[in-house]
Amino acid sequence: MDSKRDHNEVVMRSADLDKERARRKAAEAKLEALEGLYRRLYDNASDGIVLFDDRGIIINANPTFLKMLGYRLEEIKGQEAVALIHPEDLEKVPSQLHRLLAGQSVTIERRLRCKGGHYICGEQSSRRVGHNVTMALYRDITARKKVEQESREALQDAEASESQLEEAISRVNTMALDAEVAALEMSQIFNATSDGICVINKDFQISKYNRILQDMMAGMGLAMTEETCSDVFGHAFCKTKRCLMNRILKDGLDRIEEEIEMTSADGGKRTLIVTAQPLLDLTADTIGIVASYTDITDRKQIEEELRRLATTDPLTGAYNRRQFMERAQEEIDRSKRYNTPLTLLMIDIDHFKTVNDTFGHNAGDAVLKRMVSESMIQLRGSDIFCRLGGEEFAAILTHTAPEQGILAAERLRKALKALTVTTTTGPVRFTVSIGVASLVQADLTLEQVMKKADDALYDAKDQGRDRVVAAD
How many CA atoms, within 13 angstroms, populate the side-chain half-sphere of residue 11? Predict the structure, then answer.
């Protein structure tokens, strides 16, 4: 009987051991899977991330933060975080640490010292993410990675003796807890980054996305769901050779960054930068992509407005002199290359000073704006029209022979003469004088053609104004 009881105890002990091994392997697989996904998010986040303990000692920093300040990790790891802060910002640090230790989130602006000695200013969001660990995001947190060797050692110990089995169980429990903590910390990073992020499986199915991307899509009146990426995003690259997933799977690319345009529910257009990187499984096979989205619509609009301000006359909206000279030179070069005709008009409003003196400068501005709007109506869309300054204007008529240029100038002169500009000081009528010159010699420069047209303009003035004169 004792022998049978001993045998049963051995069988039960073996079953317990098998269960603990299975539990350990499940915890190990879960941890490795989580680390594989979240490590890529941490390393490739567009925000700089720094981890430090309650003493303010730097634990880790991601590549974005290191690149931001120009340091290598070994140069700042173990150092006090305050060493990177501008001296004038240090007085706020104690109160901020007190709030962090109390469990509060802190968002501030502060200046950080770069390796070269200069300072950059960025928005920092800080929060406690674990015992003795604080995370700071500079416009992401790293998971701890020290359990694999301990797991193997715990397994060997468990196979050797009962006491080692108990130790292995304790280690497995710690691993499982670390996995849960890593999942929680990485989930915070996933949702704290300023970019919209989603995970797309190789079957094009969206398996995960963060709150930022959900809010970004909602702002466009679109729903963020776990459907196929083409159904959710539907931009121009979807189901084409430029599909980000196909390019990573077939071409083996490590990173793709593209500018895309999406249509919101109300028909408006939004411009986004999408960055895609491979999502690898535990065997390093690509099983999908991690895609991040940044809305740059406002930046693009500002760039376009700055471009418009740099190239146009602020009063009339016509091209300014600098833009005209660049565009005119391009057309001169094209005309010579393809041997096509080109005509230039120099235009001057007659007696414009009298308009200002008689009706006032506001009336003069109204005349200039009306003159430009009517000129753009009379000229073709391919023609280039600009305000050189004051009441002087110029136009390049592409693919226009001398005879056609004279007819176009005459048509413009008559249309402007027929205008009546209504102003607060009374109706204003005006005329223009126009000099016409054509590119008839291949060796003529832009300046020479303009000089010929300008001379013809002065001839028109000398002959009584309100007329078109062609250069010899």
Answer: 6
Within a 13 Å sphere around the CA of 110, how many CA atoms are in the beta-carbon half? 25
Task: Tell me the pairing of strands 196-201 and 119-130.
Answer: unpaired
Any alpha helices (H) in 161-281, and if so which ranges? 162-192, 211-219, 229-232, 244-251
Do 385 and 374 contact (CB within 8 A), yes or no? no
pTM over 0.70: no
Composition of the chain by helix, strand, coil, percent to 5: 50, 25, 25
Length of the chain: 472
Q: At what angle do helices 162-192 and 2-44 cross, to 10 degrees?
A: 20
DSSP secondary structure string for all residues of 422-452: EETTEEE---EEEEEEE--STT--HHHHHHH
CATH class of 2-191: alpha beta
The yes-or-no answer on residue 391 being catalytic is yes
CATH of the domain spanning 195-301, picked from 3.30.420.40, 3.30.450.20, 1.10.1740.10, 3.20.20.60: 3.30.450.20
Domain boundaries defined on the chain: 2-191, 195-301, 312-470
Domains 195-301 and 312-470 share a fold: no
Categorize the per-residue pLDDT at 394 as very low, low, confident or very high, splitting at 50, 70 and 90.
Answer: very high
Nearest CA among 35, 83, 58 for reference residue 189: 35
How far is residue 45's CA from residue 427's CA, in Å, rounded to a whole number? 63
Give the integer Cα–Cα distance in Å for 256 and 131. 37
Among candidate residues 355, 338, 438, 352, the one with its CA nearest the CA of residue 395: 438
Buried b (16+ CB within 10 A) or exposed e, 354-385: ebbeebeeebbebbbbbbbebbbebbeeebbb
What is the tally of helices (H) and strands (E) in the chain? 15, 17
State which amino acid sits at residue 97. L
What is the rounded CA–CA span in Å between residue 126 and residue 105?
A: 6
Q: What is the pLDDT of residues 21-56, one digit of tens each?
A: 777 777 677 767 666 666 777 777 778 888 888 888
Question: Hey, what amino acid is at 302?
Answer: I
* CATH 3.40.50.1970 at 312-470, yes or no: no
* Active-site annotation holder among 391, 392, 403, 410: 391
The residue type found at 373 is S
